[in-house]
Design brief:
By secondary structure, the protein is an all-alpha fold. Helix content is 78%, strand content 0%.
Length: 441
């Protein structure tokens, strides 16, 4: 070790041998001793800072490689979101100039429910981007965070800007699959936003074009990521048809998505894929349950809740997955309600409510959690003897829809609530406060 230090010392360039150092020595020999010493101290400090930056960049490169492996381990369900966040926080601290570090950190923050942090990381990436494709990716991530924060109009403006950039770049390089993918993702993002704004017809147009692009990309590349995109876009198109009250078409696209998911090789069934596969199965079951096929829905929901709990155990720090799991757990309550098993429904709803209230009180996903709590209230309203102001409950529909697509059973229950609210509006005022209902058939 001592020999290595000696070699390093010998290789280090003497400050006095630099042009700036020689100038300082000349000042010293000319009689300006204090000025020369001050200049040499400043030069040493500057060189020290430069060495530290160089060391940080080298250390960041090593940390970045390890963080990338940690990110892959997370995709495989081996470590949690917070463990990977700490690695990318270190990397960006050591070297804040690498845009993809900020992109990955922002996406991890978003999964952890740290939406303001996610927005800040994405905005840093936008400011640092030196080419249009990277700028578009970062702007889209900013829009994703804004959409989850409920700032839908700001999100729309960014999505429209990124789609314009992506369309131009894809037209300039028509054989570049990654640029075509960016266009499809931009269309899907605008479709999701349209659903949150209550415009199902606009969502159908966006998702239709995205699905066409995904199918074309898959036919040309046969690449696993393109296949996953195709599965998800088919599911999103089903969501749009649910919102448009066309359950036959919704069922067609949910079934198509499931068929596509089932062809993914087992080695590719990473956590994200498993979550989306569970979600689309839940959505299909809700469509079939709304159409009266309770047996099919019940057979699916039991397995899905088990799967959801297993996924949650793998990474309890992924708050977006925690919310998705609560939606899947609500399906358990749905089956109990449709089977008129009221005690079981109450028990499940109390468990889901406790989890959502914890999220609502502790993090930046409080808006989403509060609106998911409205879905719990909707189901509680289906229970016999419920004391409910139906008009107040019905008024929460738009805010909850703004947090993401609703299921066919959500819409069915909401229509029942609107029916009660309409009945209450025709009663004398003294009889409408806290009215009860018997379970609707």
């Amino acid at each position: 070790y001592a020999q290595e230090i000696a070699i390093l010392r010998g290789a280090a360039e003497d400050i006095a041998a630099t042009p700036e150092g020689l100038a300082a020595l000349q000042r010293f020999n000319a009689g300006d001793e204090l000025g020369a010493l001050l200049a040499l101290d400043r030069l040493r400090d500057a060189r020290g800072r430069a060495r530290q930056v160089r060391n940080n960049i080298e250390s960041a490169a090593e940390a970045r490689n390890i963080a990338a492996l940690a990110l892959e381990a997370r995709r495989r369900g081996q470590i949690g979101t917070n463990a990977v966040i700490s690695r990318y926080e270190e990397t960006t601290r050591l070297d804040p100039s690498e845009i993809w570090d900020w992109v990955n950190l922002g996406r991890l923050y978003q999964d952890a429910g740290r939406l303001r942090d996610a927005l800040r990381a994405a905005e840093i990436a936008v400011e640092s981007a030196n080419e249009d494709e990277l700028r578009s990716v970062a702007m889209s991530d900013s829009a994703d965070a804004l959409m989850l924060l409920g700032e839908l109009q700001r999100a729309r403006a960014l999505y429209e800007q990124t789609l314009a950039i992506d369309r131009r770049l894809a037209a300039e390089s028509p054989s570049d699959n990654s640029l075509a993918r960016n266009v499809a993702l931009g269309l899907s993002s605008l479709g999701q936003l349209s659903l949150r704004l209550g415009d199902a017809q606009a969502a159908l147009i966006f998702f239709d074009e995205a699905l066409e692009l995904d199918a074309k990309r898959w036919s040309l590349s046969q690449y696993g990521l393109d296949w996953f995109d195709l599965c998800v876009t088919a599911m999103e198109l089903g969501d749009a048809y649910v919102a448009a009250a066309n359950l036959d078409q919704a069922r067609f696209y949910f079934e198509r998505s499931i068929d596509l998911f089932e062809t993914i090789p087992p080695g590719e069934l990473l956590v994200e894929v498993q979550v989306q596969f569970a979600v689309v199965r839940w959505k299909l079951a809700a469509v079939r349950a709304a159409a009266g096929d309770i047996r099919y829905a019940r057979s699916e929901y039991g397995e899905l809740v088990t799967l959801a709990n297993a996924l949650l155990e793998q990474d309890p720090t992924n708050q977006l997955n925690v919310l998705e799991v609560q939606r899947l757990r609500l399906s358990h309550a749905d089956m109990a309600i449709l089977s008129e098993n009221w005690s079981e429904a109450r028990q499940v709803l109390e468990q889901v409510r406790t989890t959502l209230e914890s999220i609502a009180s502790s993090g930046q996903l409080s808006v989403a959690a509060q609106n998911y709590l409205w879905l719990v209230q909707v189901r509680e309203a289906m229970l016999p003897g419920t004391q409910m102001n139906w008009a107040t409950l019905a008024s929460g529909f738009n805010a909850t829809r703004a947090q993401g697509p609703l299921s066919a059973l959500d819409y069915q229950f909401i229509e029942r609530i609107r029916g009660h609210a309409s009945q209450d509006s025709r009663r004398p005022p003294s009889t409408t406060e806290g009215s009860q209902h018997t379970p609707p058939k």
